[in-house]
């Protein structure tokens, strides 16, 4: 498998790992940590052996898993485990065949950066699969794969209920919802806003329709997600993210 920027890495399609009994425990257990409790595999309805097997597969230094989440307009959200021996982590980004660069969302690992998605974007990507492109198409799996990149201080009132439904569809205990939406272990929830033109300069907003993040450690701080791509490509990205009504 080839991904721009990782040509020499031992990348493999990761979608088959979703069938492992302990996959979601291995992938999300760290995110469910609370101030009162350290997570255990039993929270996810699996035993330690299944969780360990999933962790081994996710962290294999010779096979770096890539999860593709195709959505509207030919875009793909990518979850890539870079399993360097001394500096492992997970990259979250958006790619498109026409782009020369990736739209970086977040990094989970030793050099963490985030948040990378608002709730609005996460929910929209999850429910708008491109069924003609390879990758993960099930809404619940798309939602949970991207959940670690979330950081939004303005969650909707029904966010926990929605996540409970997602967990149920994945065959996971719905009681995990509160823990998974609690304080993120790596970054604070951020405010997401659409850019606006300066009232002093009278200029147009540079990347209309694409949300900006006020988290100082986020790759989405300002308008960086859309840097390096043409105006029409930015418009299509904003539409695909569900934050711009027309293209």
What keyword list fits this structure?
247 residues; alpha+beta; two-stranded antiparallel ribbon; 7 helices; 14% strand; globular; SMI1/KNR4 family protein
Report on this model:
The chain is α+β, with helices and mostly antiparallel strands and 247 residues long. It contains seven helices and seven strands, in the order βααββββααααββα. It has a five-stranded mixed β-sheet with strand order 1-2-3-4-5, with helices on one face. A two-stranded antiparallel sheet has the order 6-7. The longest helix is centred in the N-terminal third of the chain and has 11 residues, at 48-58. Residues 198-205 have low confidence and may be disordered.
Break the fold down into its secondary structure elements and pairings.
Layout: E1 11-13, H1 23-28, H2 48-58, E2 64-70, E3 76-82, E4 89-95, E5 103-109, H3 119-126, H4 139-146, H5 159-169, H6 176-180, E6 192-193, E7 212-213, H7 231-240
Parallel strand pairs: 1-2
Antiparallel strand pairs: 2-3, 3-4, 4-5, 6-7
Helix pairs in contact: 3-4, 4-5
